Amino acid sequence: MSLQPANVMQMTGQAISHLGSRSPTQRAAILNGFGRTLGDGIIGLQALHLAIRLGAIAPRPTLFRLGHLPAMVQSLYDVADFAAIRTLPQDQATPARRFEDAEGFDQIIDIRDFAFDPDFQQTSMIDFFLRRLGVDPHIIPACLRRNSWLPRRVAPPRQQRPNGYVLVCPRASMPLREMPAEIHDCILRHVAAIAPIVTQGRVPSALAGEIAHVPPCATLAELCALVRNASWVISTDTGMVHLADASTCRAWRSFRPIVRSGGSATIRAACRSPFARRCRKGSSSPAGSATMPSPATPGFPTAPTSAGSPG
Predict the structure, then answer these.
(1) In terms of CATH, what superfamily is 165-290?
(2) Rounded CA separation 77/185 (Å)
(3) Of 190, 264, 270, 302, which is least surrounded by CB within 10 A?
């Protein structure tokens, strides 16, 4: 279905009618909303933005966030002007400790330690957050799950490099998820034969001059520009994948499909493809039709996958 504004509004109205005559409370607090990583924040804030639009949550809820967040994550919440931000004391970071500021709110949504919730581990991230915010995810059309708030609030700066490159992102918020060097090098070799590449990782000496290395972005706007101007994103970290979805840029995730992706409509798992399996085996010269496909060939998806399924 086309993502025309009229269609979106019609679907929003249908979703609201399914919610019935619920009257949202006026003062809502969300504890640990929504975690400490960029990917969780992008998805959680999209769920919150949608819940506010549907009337399940009153405007301007208060997010109680843990302190000492990475600067890029903090920048994300700084532009989320539809919520107030307060600091959650470290000694109240888990459900084992009573939240002491509850008297100032009509409703407390407690998602402290949500990463350990069995429901979070068994469903898509957007569905989990929607349920915790009082919205039945089954009534939400796929187009409304996509990030609609971030692009309007971040103005990416102009870039010196031309648009249309493939962006490779081997770094992750957790070392366990980082792309192994041999996989990264193999991806670069294959993609360099068919498309211009920009990578956030190390460029092999054999490919120096063919591939552009980009240093860590200093601001959220720079990061959004880097993703928005790419034709494809290959990433091991969900934060970059969710930014790609917000920019309507197709993305391949290089971690295993059993790891959550958030339910995005434009994400494919790179490890399902033949070239990635060969990379894991250490092959550098696949032959025939099993080579890394170009974005113009059937090997690259030409239509979005279904949304809402677990990552």
Answers:
(1) Glycogen Phosphorylase B; (3.40.50.2000)
(2) 34
(3) 302
What are the two backbone dihedrals, phi and then psi, of residue 153, each rounded to the nearest 5 degrees?
-110, -5
State the burial class of residue 299 (Cβ atoms within 10 Å of its Cβ: 0-12, 13-18, 19+).
Answer: middle
- What residue ranges of the chain have pLDDT lower than 50? 1, 21, 256-261, 264-277, 283-311
Instruction: Give the predicted TM-score (pTM) of the model.
Output: 0.79
The SS3 of residue 85 is: strand
How confident is the model at residue 159, as a pLDDT?
Answer: 76
**Structure confidence at residue 308 (pLDDT):** 34
User: Which of 174, 169, 223 is CA-nearest to residue 198?
Assistant: 169
Beta strands in the chain (DSSP E): 28-31, 62-66, 84-88, 107-110, 165-169, 197-199, 211-213, 230-235, 250-253, 267-269
Return the SS3 of 239.
helix
Q: How is the chain split into domains, by residue range?
A: 12-153, 165-290
